[in-house]
Amino acid sequence: MTAGHTVLSVSHRTTYRYSTLVETAQHLATIRPLACAWQRVVNHTERIEPTPSYTHSRIDAFGNDVLYFALDTPHERLQLVSETTVQLTPRWTSLDPHSTPAWDAVAGALHFSVGGTFRPETEFRFASPNIVPRPALREYALRSFPPGMPVAAGAVDLMHRIHADFEYTPSATMFDTPAERAFELRRGVCQDFAQVMIGCLRSLGLPARYVSGYLRNDRPPGQARLIGADASHAWVSVHCPGSGWIDLDPTNDVLADTDHVTLATGRDYSDVSLLRGMILGGGAHRVEVGVSVLTLSGREPICAGHPSCSKELDSVRMHIYIAIHEPAALLRRMQLLCAAAGGTACHADLRAAFVGRGFVGGAFHDSCQARAHAEPDHDGSGGRDGHGSYNAGPRDEAAATRRSRVHRAGRA
Q1: Beta-bridge partner residues of 65
Q2: Which of 66, 72, 69 is nearest to 55 (CA)?
Q3: What is the C-alpha separation between 178 and 255, in angstroms, rounded?
Q4: Do residues 280 and 25 lie in contact, with contact meaning Cβ atoms separated by under 8 Å?
Q5: What whole-number distance in Å separates Cα of residue 288 and Cα of residue 285?
Q6: With bands split at pLDDT 50, 70 and 90, how would you rate the model's confidence at 403?
Q7: Of 278, 266, 382, which Cα lies nearest the Cα of 322?
Q8: Would you call 262 helix, strand, or coil by DSSP?
Q9: How far apart are CA 138 and CA 134, in angstroms?
Q10: Pairing of strands 244-249, 187-188
Q11: What is 187-201 written as a DSSP string?
């Protein structure tokens, strides 16, 4: 690995369970990571159950790789699993926010003029389905943007203030709560923090876009755990001439860098929700979401007697979330790997290694024995509810057993 780079492994599992059969379904999934100058996609795989009858990929208007799939087989369960490895390059080592252009000059240069040159960032200055620039948002933003304030410095100050003034409360909002309402409440989740900040920036005429992605789970010792690290996440990107798009995370009050994995960008959440679509049937539903984002590099082998186990460990780290809920399954997986490598006495080493490193919250089951012929169990679930219909929202389970329904999932 190149010095200064960070390699992260992402495992994301979403499972829907319906009370009655879904007869047919069509979905759009924005689960493929963005490949760009600072983020190299090393590997990405995805698995859908039941197997789709049709799949199609396309690049949307914002440059995101979107997957469309159709399910014609009646089903009571839908599971989407994606596994990704990315290499991240630090972006902000040379950024000096106070050396960026004045915000009012930046906003003024983007005003329409006949015969003027089109600038792509302009499309992110205007209202979008979830974000309407309002006078209240402009008034709040102006405290961070006095005349002549450098645009990046003002954006960083605005991020600090939103982080301080707003409370992270998952139950306060729903997937379709507009930025204006979240601003009034002064509370919400990552999605709300991001959309409020975007609304503030756009109210000043500055280009700002919504970014979806993930947060690293296993930060170095002594560093606080990031808010929202166990689910999909969202942050803000503001355009600055000379520096390009600058990513800021108001939920955690940091610039988004090597702890953040970027999936997609858009005007707001409605452009980039992880899973959305329409189903016929299904009745009531429940959803389980599990996300793990862990560092692959710089870890020693966990089984000193069999170094080949460490080679396989990187693939297992993608499923480390399972260890919290299904420790026996993960232990069995590692025992199988050791057995395949010729190991005969790895049980104690594995137990001590996983418990000692804090990967497993509960005790292992002593009855779990290594059997080379057994099928590894990767069934794990958990996390917060990220699903909702357009009409009812994520916490309302409709009683109808047969109807056409539009839904979204993956709210940060």
Answers
A1: 59
A2: 69
A3: 24
A4: yes
A5: 10
A6: very low
A7: 382
A8: strand
A9: 6
A10: unpaired
A11: EE-HHHHHHHHHHHH
What does the alpha-carbon distance between residue 78 and residue 74 come to, in Å, rounded to a whole number?
A: 10
Q: Rounded to an integer, what distance in angstroms lies between the CA atom of residue 281 and that of residue 27?
A: 14
| Cβ pair 208, 197 in contact under 8 A | yes
Which CATH code of 3.30.565.10, 3.40.50.720, 3.10.129.10, 3.10.620.30 fits the domain covering 101-264?
3.10.620.30
Place of tokens 């982080």: 163
Burial string for 295-307 (b: 16+ CB within 10 Å, else e) reads bbeeeeebbeebe
Which one, of 46, 44, 40, lies nearest residue 6 by Cα? 40
Tokens 């026996």 locate to 328
CB atoms within 10 A of CB 100: 21
Dump pLDDT digits (tens) for 119-153.
999 999 999 999 999 999 999 999 999 999 999 99
Upstream peptide bond of 50 is cis (omega within 30 degrees of 0): yes
Which residue, chain included where needed, has tokens 């047969």? 402
Tokens 């000096």 label which residue? 96
Structure tokens at 408: 């979204």
Give pLDDT tens digits for 361-377: 333 333 222 222 222 22
Q: How far apart are CA 304 and CA 283, in angstroms?
A: 52
Lowest mean pLDDT among 31-40, 56-65, 217-226, 256-265: 217-226
DSSP structure class, residue 113 = -
